[in-house]
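Troubleshooting: if your tokenizer reports a length mismatch, compare against these two reference records.
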Amino acid sequence: MTETLRERIAAELAGARQRTSVLTECVDEADLTAQHSPLMSPLVWDLAHVANQEEQWLLREVGGRDPMHPDMDPLYDAFEHPRAERPSLPLLPPAEARAYGREVRGRVLDLLEVARLDEPLSFGSRLTGGGFAFGMIAQHEAQHDETMLITHQIRKGHPVLTGPDPGPAPADASRLPREVLVPGGPFTMGTSAEPWALDNERPAHTVHVPSFLIDTTPVTCGAYAGFIADGGYDDPRWWTEAGWQHRKRAGLSAPLYWRRDGAQWLRTVFGRTQPVRPEEPVLHVCWYEADAYARWAGRRLPTEAEWEKAARFDPATGTSRRYPWGNDEPEPRHANLGQALLRPAPAGSYPEGAAPCGARQLLGDVWEWTSSDFLPYPGFTAWPYREYSEAFFGPEYKVLRGGSFAVSPVACRATFRNWDYPIRRQIFAGFRTARSAVLSRRGDPAGLVACGGGPGVPRPESG
């Protein structure tokens, strides 16, 4: 068991580093050191930051080693220097940043060979139980790989990234119901058992969620274009007061990177201009836009608890799964993850990754905005440092769930929680909508009939 865990850790660290290399070796030094947006760090900062975090947590905290470059820590402290300030810091040049990363990684792999991993994780004490510290660092670099991909989407200049086309939606996608029922009742939210789960995912606790219906797939570009065509951006009825003020102040009129060209919408994808594909999940919308669309559609954004219950709860067993499809690790047949495609797959894709309720694409493709503020679970304990989660708790941040096409499987599970300001649009975020279930006298959802896909997957009678 311990040797298998060592092999997995080594593979996850190597996979994250391979993606870091792809994202930083495809551009020249000028692009690496430039700041492409005040919202993002220069790529060269991310390159050294992931190595610095790896040194601090694995070589120093786990291995008890002395700092390799003590004066370097403040330069790569995300709390000490806001992103807008980072280009002015005396950062390591690209070649030195890469050399630093290689040196740290070599020492970490030596440490991995002798680290004690056989003790169970005692959350709040040992860093190496279950390989937690190593898993935390693998997830950290994978998260920065997503951040660096966002920077690539923002950067101007010659396109340098390409990915395969997702291909068409599966044959049954057009026959899917618009929404699926998630029955009311208690379920286990969060986790106490997942060895690499981060502190904000813990502890497992019981939550009662009334019956609700949720979109079978994320909202598509075609559906969102209908909101635009109906004047959704110009009608304050659909916006919260704060959202309407932000819409006017920021001049929002369509998702980020969209522009009108005659009768069609175009968008920019990693430097290439192409028609908007109506069948793909909409991307690059902020929380206020997602909330306005939901109101326009006569619906609402799901709560975080609703989203997780839709993704995890198996009514046949009364248990919560690790992933929508079960407890097995993600495979390409389950979800669009790991920057393999560099865009969302068509709505209705990945039937083998469907949740018990029938919803698809709950993991991968697009982060999904929820209506919930980012708050701690009952019994939350900050560990191993409060700045990872606790510093962000509060109504300023909204929770996103599910992970995008840019997320590595190591940092994506049905309990994983992401958060951001409701104005953020550069992230790979979309959404799906929900509504409360109105029950008939028999206790069935009113106005719904079972669809041909199987029992318990309802569809509107209107089709």
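Reference record two:
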Amino acid sequence: MKKSTKILLVIFILSLIPTLFLGKFVIAGIIATDKGFKFNFDTKAIIGIVLSVVTTVLGTILFIKFIMSQPVDKAIFFSSLPLVILYGMSLFMLAEITTFDNPLANSLKTILNVSPDNLYNTILWAILITLIFIMLLFLNCFVLCKPIAKVERIVSRLGDGKVRDEKLHIGGGKQFNSIEHSLNKINNNYRSKDNSLKTINLETQKFIPKQFFKFLGKSSIQELELGNQVKKKATSVLVKLSGLSSNGSMSLEENFNYVNSFIHVISPLIRKFGGFIDKYNGEGITAVFAKTEDAIDCSHAIIRSINIKNRQNRSLPNVEQRVSIITGEVIFGIVGEEERKMPTIVSNVTPILEKLDELNKMMSAKVIFTKSSLDSLPLNYKFLYRYIGKLSTTENGEVVLFEDFEVLPRNISNELIKSKSFFERGVILYEECEYEKACENFSNALKICPKDKGCYLYYNKSKEKLSN
């Protein structure tokens, strides 16, 4: 028992004894009359009334403390017991008062307007007392059981994995204090684990991009299972950099940092445009995009950014960049074992990208993309490009290719626009084995744009075919 409760109990006992002694003076001051009651309290009676009020208040406080220290079932029983006793006594007195014949009983009968001949009023008073009893009983149970509703809401929220930063509060008696303490421990454990999971997910995103989770329909690494896979249409991009390791004056460490400096330029741009890096491969980076227009925009941004970096590093050799783009079905999945799960992309685009890069290098182009990528672009997407022919991928397969010259210097792109019709006509004639006519068209294109290496390549091949 708490010290404060002990003090209240002592004060209650000290006030109860004189209250019982002075009770007879209070009763004597209540005088029954034919019209009801009149009150004539002397000094002792007034003191008795004051002590009765103090005793009642202290008794109520102690009773509430007692109720709050009990489990819910006992609390409901002990708190309802006085109401039941009072209800039973009230009904008994109401039923028997008409049989009594003394001044007090007669005054009560006058106030209540009941008599042996008027049972109707007696029944009405009985109904009223019953309604008041039911209401008080309901209110008592409602107050004592209110914390249970809070527990239900908190448990439901915790069951759904929702935690709160502030302390959970239930209220109620001693039993609920114990439950509140346990729920706060659970909430704190959930919060700690939730923070740990957030930290793990943030660290995981450095190795497994969040876009990869989206492709698999997952939200965190904990949800990844071996064998998880999904087949989707995506645009794969191969960025190749040449000239990074051509400076012999650099040490291995300097060269490593130099390579990383360009990766630090490219990687944020890939993430910015909604893509994610599948793999780093020497001087190349393979990235995957859900939307082809994002892949094209990203390739433009990469080329412009590297050109700016080249101008900033005038003391070092220029780094040439090439971007190859293809759109097709790829499989996003999880491979490995339970101890080490690895995300991977399975498709046949990697060898095709390498072939595109070889052609890209031969033509000194910046961006080459396939017809599948062109077909995946929105109708309102505008940029500068031209048809550059077909590339055999398998024995019976080939891809149609285009060159994007949106990011070339203005003077060169203007010349390519003017020579585009001659060049594309020459490529079609070359594919149709009309080499002489193809040479004429390539020659006309070169007169407009002498720096078009791709056109020179086709022109020389046409000449070779004619000579053979």
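Descriptive notes for reference record two:
- The radius of gyration is 46 Å.
- The CA atoms of residues 355 and 393 lie 8 Å apart.
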